[in-house]
């Protein structure tokens, strides 16, 4: 998987992309990351990337010419790459969307700044607009980092165990079950007995029920789209969750 990021602040990515899972993915040759300074695609001596909006209003807009030139140039590195724009107006970023993106041959992520980008870039160059939440950031760089991290985890071989990605929260539409490690007792709190039993079927049953319980308590909205078995529905009804079909 190749990620190409178009940004006015490429140095913001140096620390996050040089550590942990993303670093591991690069070292294994499973992902490539290209950082591209949008100002390098301007043609005036001031390297202008923004201008006032037609019709007036506060703030500045990113000009279409350097953005178009940047996208067209980077497309030469990976013609089949999908172009993403990080924007509060985009499709909410979810685990399901991350899975979809992980199957693409490459992603070009355009990081917006100022009051946004010229609408013609949306219309002619962007394949998907993505939002990481209902709030406003100073720019799209942090959102791009979130996208790269989330998608990278889903690329086979990046994590120590591919099972980790499958059992994470949202991997099966539910929040993850509680996790414990040594010691068996801490501050008067004991590890639940099923986890110490050595009975794999009992452990699996306990984990599934705890995932269902936690999701019902914290994110009941997820249950409407989760793949639930008859046993799952029966357990949820025992918790008083009646609106499961």
Describe the structure.
The structure is a single chain. With 245 residues, the protein is α/β, with parallel strands linked by helices. The chain has 2 domains: 2-153, Alpha/beta knot, CATH 3.40.1280.10; 185-238, tRNA(m1g37)methyltransferase, domain 2 (Trp Operon Repressor, Chain A). Helices cover 36% and strands 17% of the residues. It has helices at 14-17, 20-27, 64-75, 95-102, 119-124, 141-153, 162-167, 193-196, 200-218, 230-238; strands spanning 2-7, 32-37, 50-51, 61-62, 82-92, 106-111, 128-131, 185-186, 189-190. The strands form 3 sheets. Strands 2-1-6-5-7 form a 5-stranded parallel beta sheet, sandwiched between helices. A two-stranded antiparallel ribbon has the order 3-4. Strands 8-9 form a two-stranded antiparallel sheet. α4 (95-102) crosses α6 (141-153). The mean pLDDT is 94.
Distance between the termini: 38 Å
DSSP helical segment count: 10
Arithmetic mean of pLDDT: 94
Q: Low-confidence parts, pLDDT < 50 over ≥5 residues?
A: none
What portion of residues is helical? 25-40%
The CATH superfamily of the largest domain appears as SPOUT methyltransferase, trefoil knot domain
Number of strands: 9
Strand content: 15-25%
Q: Taking strands numbered 1, 2, ... along the chain, how are they ordered across the largest sheet? A: 2-1-6-5-7
CATH class of the largest domain: Alpha Beta
Radius of gyration over all CA atoms, rounded: 22 Å
Q: Determine the structural class based on helices, strands and strand pairing.
A: alpha/beta
Shape: elongated
Q: What is the correct CATH architecture of the largest domain?
A: 3-Layer(aba) Sandwich
Q: How many discrete structural domains?
A: 2
Largest sheet: 5 strands, parallel
What's the order of the H and E elements? EHHEEEHEHEHEHHEEHHH
The fold-level CATH name of the largest domain is Alpha/beta knot
């Amino acid at each position: 998987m190749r990620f190409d990021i178009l940004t006015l602040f490429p140095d913001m990515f140096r620390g996050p992309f040089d550590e942990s899972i993303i670093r591991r993915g690069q070292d294994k040759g499973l992902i490539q990351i290209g950082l591209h300074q949008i100002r390098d695609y301007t043609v005036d001596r001031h390297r202008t990337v923004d201008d006032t909006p037609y019709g007036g209003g506060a703030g500045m807009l990113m000009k279409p010419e350097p953005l178009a030139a940047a996208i067209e140039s980077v497309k030469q590195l990976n013609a089949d790459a999908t172009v993403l724009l990080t924007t509060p107006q985009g499709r909410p970023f979810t685990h399901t969307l991350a899975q979809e993106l992980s199957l693409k041959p490459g992603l070009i992520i355009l990081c917006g700044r100022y009051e946004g980008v010229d609408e013609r870039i949306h219309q002619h160059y962007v394949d998907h607009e993505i939002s990481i939440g209902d709030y406003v950031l100073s720019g799209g760089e942090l959102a791009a980092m979130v996208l790269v991290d989330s998608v990278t985890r889903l690329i086979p071989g990046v994590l120590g165990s591919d099972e980790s990605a499958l059992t994470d929260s949202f991997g099966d539409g539910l929040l993850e079950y509680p996790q414990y490690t040594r010691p068996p007792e801490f501050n008067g709190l004991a590890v639940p007995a099923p986890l110490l039993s050595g009975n794999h079927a009992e452990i699996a049953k306990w984990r599934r029920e705890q995932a269902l319980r936690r999701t019902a308590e914290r994110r009941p909205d997820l249950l409407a789209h989760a793949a639930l078995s008859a046993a799952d529905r029966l357990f949820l009804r025992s918790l008083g969750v009646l609106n499961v079909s």
